[in-house]
Amino acid sequence: MFKNHITDIFFDLDHTLWDFERNSALTFEKILGQNNIDVNLDSFLKIYVPINLDYWKLYREDRITKAELRYQRLKKTFDALGAQVSDEHIDLLAHEYILHLSTFTHLFPDTVEVLEYLSPKYNLHIITNGFQEIQEKKLKGANIDRYFEHVINSEEAGVKKPHPQIFHMALDRARVSAENSLMVGDSLEADIQGAIAVGFQTLHFNAHNEANHKICPMINNLSEIKGIL
Question: 86: number of CA atoms within 13 Å, CB side?
Answer without folding.
Answer: 5
